[in-house]
Amino acid sequence: VLLWRKFEAAGAWGRLHQGHFDWWMFPIDDGSNARFNVYAGDVAELQADRAYMAGYREGVRLALAAWGWDAAAAAPIVPVRGGMGWTQWDVRLAKICRSLYLFEEAALLASAQAFARSVKPRGGFSYGHINLDELLAFRLPRA
């Protein structure tokens, strides 16, 4: 997140897009790199860590901002600044949504899903042959 703050301060949003941060920044339970996967006990431990959760939430805010989305307002950033914009990285957005669901971050999940609907109103999120439209179906609180 420290590096991302520098990108934000410099208006270098495109630099954030270049990073490969999905595995460790937005952990999920079924990622392709198992050493970064989290499960119920891991999530509970991380949720209890205030510093971790503050950085996690800021990471979500910055990742969405790099796509031109204001996470707090759940709306587009107007005007969009240089380097901001949707990169067509469905898998990155899907990981963010899945991670927010696992961490039970309802407001940020709703915002990320609103962004998803703004870029693909009919769904169609994918990674190769894998359908990622589940990102639109996550609901909190869990039943």
Structure report:
The protein is 50% helix and 6% strand. The chain contains seven helices and four strands, in the order αααααββααββ. The protein has helices spanning 2-10, 13-18, 22-25, 40-47, 50-66, 90-102, 106-119, and strands at 69-70, 75-76, 126-127, 130-131. Strands 1-2 form a two-stranded antiparallel ribbon. Strands 3-4 form a two-stranded antiparallel ribbon. The longest helix has 17 residues, at 50-66.
Topology at a glance:
Layout: H1 2-10, H2 13-18, H3 22-25, H4 40-47, H5 50-66, E1 69-70, E2 75-76, H6 90-102, H7 106-119, E3 126-127, E4 130-131
Antiparallel strand pairs: 1-2, 3-4
Helix pairs in contact: 6-7
For the structure shown, list the relevant keywords:
mainly alpha, globular, two-stranded antiparallel sheet, 7 helices, single chain
Gap between N and C termini: 32 Å
Count of separate DSSP helical elements: 7
Largest beta-sheet characterization: 2 strands, antiparallel
Arithmetic mean of pLDDT: 94
Q: Count the E strands.
A: 4
SSE class: mainly alpha
Low-confidence region ranges = none
Q: What is the strand arrangement across the widest sheet?
A: 1-2
Cα Rg: 14 Å
Series of H and E elements: HHHHHEEHHEE
Strand content: 5-15%
Gross morphology: globular
Helix content percent band: 40-55%
